[in-house]
Design brief:
Elements (H helix, E strand, L loop, with lengths): L1 H27 L12 H19 L10 H40 L5 E3 L6 E3 H17 L3 H13 L8 H22 L1 H20 L5 H37 L6
Antiparallel strand pairs: 1-2
Helix pairs in contact: 1-2, 1-3, 3-4, 3-6, 3-8, 4-8, 7-8
Subcellular location: Cell membrane
Main location: membrane
Membrane topology: Multi-pass membrane protein
């Protein structure tokens, strides 16, 4: 009887596992650190799949049984994928702040012409943008910050139970708020370079007025690059520390952990 009962329960357990994988797999595809574009998609999906047997005993009792209609099953799966992408996207916006800051730093350093492929922002990006993106991923993985979004993902089943309608209005507001906070963080990280660019350009303007015969342009480009690189080497460690603190605070504010 026990074997017969287990065989009878297998379809329901399999459907619950698929429901878990829909949310977990979608989130892992975009989470910072774990879901970087440099990581092949099968590996990211494998990470999401590996979480299913770990969480199924814990979350299984709260999951709905397999529905009788295929349409209802498809609706549940689509909702779970949407929730996973939404939660992963909220965390991803924190890491994007580093890429945006790197793009701004390149413009201020005069390195905007050095373009490299940028899978985070799409198309071609600047070398400093890629440097900052990779630094953010390494920092999140090395410091263990990636565990906070994973915990928020697990706790999200209490906040957004499977089968409940997705709160589109609140979800959109959360995305807008996260995007604005990401932009504010990017501007804060690039602030030393903004100040340096202002000082350099004011100094060059004064030099052009005092000594018009000096070819300011030929002095400005290499001087700006050298000063910017020296400033980057000086402020990069505290910049990464500031990002780590901001990322931790933002991750702890994810839905499910508030």
């Amino acid at each position: 009887m026990e074997e017969a009962g287990l065989l009878a329960a297998l379809p329901g357990i399999a459907f619950q596992a698929v429901l878990l994988f829909a949310r977990l797999g979608a989130a892992v595809m975009v989470l910072p650190g774990l879901g970087e574009q440099e990581v092949p998609a099968p590996v990211r999906l494998g990470l999401g799949l590996a979480l299913v047997p770990l969480l199924l005993p814990l979350l299984g009792p709260a999951l709905p049984p397999a529905p009788d209609s295929a349409g209802e099953a498809a609706r549940l799966l689509v909702l779970e994928v949407l929730v996973g992408l939404w939660l992963g996207g909220l965390a991803r916006l924190v890491a994007i702040a580093m890429a945006v800051a790197g793009q701004a730093v390149a413009l201020l350093l005069g390195l905007a012409q050095a373009m490299v492929p940028d899978p985070d922002l799409g198309g071609l990006g600047t070398a400093t943008g890629r440097l900052f993106s990779l630094a953010a991923a390494v920092l999140i993985l090395a410091s263990g910050l990636y565990a906070i979004p994973l915990r928020a993902l697990v706790e999200s089943y209490a906040l957004l139970p499977v089968g409940e309608p997705f709160p589109a209005g609140a979800g959109a507001e959360a995305m807008v708020a996260a995007a604005s906070e990401s932009l504010a963080l990017a501007l804060r990280l690039a602030a030393p370079f903004v100040v340096a660019a202002i000082v350099i350009n004011v100094a060059l303007g004064l030099l052009a007025r005092i000594a018009p015969q000096v070819q300011v342009y030929f002095i400005a480009i290499p001087g700006q690059v050298l000063v910017g690189l020296a400033l980057l080497a000086l402020v990069l460690p505290p910049l990464l520390g500031t990002f780590a603190e901001a990322a931790r605070a933002a991750f702890l504010g994810l839905p499910g952990l508030r």
